[in-house]
Structure formats: structure tokens, C-alpha cells
Amino acid sequence: MALAGTTGYSLLLLAASLLAFFGGLRLMQRLPLAAPLRLERWLLRATSTPWRGLVTGALLAAAVHSSSAVIIATVALVSAGLLPLANALGVILGSNIGTCLTVQFLAFDLARLGFPLAAAGTLLAAIGRGRLHYLALGLAGLGFLLTALALLGEALAPLSSSPFFYRFLEQWTNNHARAFFAGVIATALVQSSTLFTAATIALADKGLLTLPAAVALVLGGNVGTCADTLVAGLWANKAGRRVALAHLLLNAAGAIAFLPLVNSFAALLERLFASPAAQVANAHLLFNLITAGAALPFTRSFARWLNRLPTERP
Predict the structure, then answer these.
(1) Residue 76 lies in a domain
(2) What is the domain extent for residue 250?
(3) According to the model, what pLDDT value does residue 311 have?
(4) d(CA 116, CA 230)
(5) Within the chain, what is the greatest distance between any pair of CA atoms?
(6) What is the C-alpha to C-alpha distance for residues 104 and 195, in angstroms, rounded to an integer?
(7) Is residue 111 domain-resident?
(8) How far does CA 123 lie from the centroid of its chain?
(9) How many structural domains is the chain composed of?
(10) What's the pLDDT score for residue 291?
(11) Which site from 57, 83, 213, 214 is most exposed, i.e. has the minimal number of CB atoms within 10 Å?
(12) Residue range 202-242, pLDDT digits in tens
């Protein structure tokens, strides 16, 4: 009976964390409305070079806590012929970096600030008008995201004493390739690399995952997050489909290149950071920084190659 009660409580917390997370994400995506320019116009005006595209993509993804929202807007701009493909590649690389911000809150144990921020933002949004209203919605969204991360960690805590769940995790993470594909599938299903990475951090922090396994899962998550962009690309024209394809190829190439280095990368992280949460969160950040830095000098030649590819719908 006690176990059933604990399981029911954990499922309730898990459901609450998912509601808070996706609700907060929705509110955060209202934040660009506080500015005189909409998301598409921001991208258009600030992406005159691949380097500027990277910085802009990182800032926007950090602001709205969603790389997918930024990349889907980029698909729309390229489809409309307003943004060159090479500059769009910079946005993709930057958005991968910017989306790491949310999980960094776990590394610095800032999730406890979630409820006060959500309450303050909700109150300000109720009384504010114009830009203040949208800024307050963004603040409330950040609070809900942080609250979701705290609830998620608490919901997963009882799993540390579950032999069944431990065996299940062990079966799926005792091999780096298997953990990688599990990360791809799980992230594609939940349609949020941030949520999946947060869950991976919580499991590693409870001792349910080794650091190499957590890193392999995070690498898979970086590929799985391309699923919603690929769906958006299906409805775009040839140019837009090239952006969606570029997102997949860039993320997959970086992840596959890192996969043989998982043990060495994990050993480096253990030397640099003390807690498992910081190790996994910074694995996510460092991976995206390194792969973006490696790919950025080749964006123009990569764009020329992509433009030669046939992208007809099947």
C-alpha cells in the first residue's frame, strides 16, 4: 500500500511538472511580443552573417527557452526568401546553445526560485499593460519552468529505490549506442530536449545514471529535438525543407562525432565540475558550444552543398 501511495504521488508530481513545464514554455514564447519587432523580424534584422545569426539564435532561444520555436521561425523566413540559407545555419547553431540555459538552472540549484517568480510574474501580468504585460508573462513562464524542474526532480526521486526501474535503466544505458538511440526516441516523443535533459540530470543526480550514460542520452536528445523541425519542414517549400534537413544533419553529425568520446568527455567533466547535475548540464552546454564553433566556419560551403540537394516531397 505504501509503495502504491508513493507511486501515485510521484505520478501526480510528474503530471504537475509536465503541465507547469509546457505552460511555462507557452508563456515564455510570448516574451518577444514585449519588443517592437516580432520574432521573425528580429531574426531578419540580426542575421546578416552566419556569426550574427549564431549570436541572435542563441539569445532568442535563451529568451523563449525553445530552440524549436526559433528554428521553425527560421524555416518560415528562408521559405519566404527573406533569409539566406548560410545565415540560417548560424541561427540553428546558436539556438542549440541558447536552449541550454534552462537546464543550467538545475546545475546552479535555482529551481527553488520558481514559485516566487511565477507568482510575481502572474500578478504583474494581471495589472500590467502593453510591453509590461508581456514581460511579466515571460517572468511567470520562467517561474513555471523552474517550478516544473523542481517538481520533476521530486517526482523521480522515489525511482531510486525501485529495482524494476533501475534494471530498466541499466538495460537501456549499459551501452552508449543504445543510450544514444533511447535519447533520440524519448526526446522526439516528448518534443522537448530541455525537458528530456532535465529528467536526465535528475536521474544522474539520484545516482540512477552513470555520467557516461547520461552524456550519451543527452547526445541522443540533441538529435531527437529535430523531430518537430522536420515536421514543420514537410509543409515548407524547398528552401524551408533545406533548413529542417540542415538542423538534423548538423545535430546528428555533432552527436555521432562525440559518441566515441563519451568516456573521455565524462572524465573531463568529472574533473571540472563537482556535482552530477552540473556535470550533465555542462555536458549539454559544452557539446553545443564545441560543435557550433567547429561548424560555423563552414556554413557557407555547407549551404552551397545543401542548395544542390533535391528536396522534393516524396
Answers:
(1) yes
(2) 38-106+163-307
(3) 55
(4) 37
(5) 63
(6) 12
(7) no
(8) 28
(9) 1
(10) 94
(11) 83
(12) 888 878 888 999 999 999 999 988 887 887 777 778 888 88
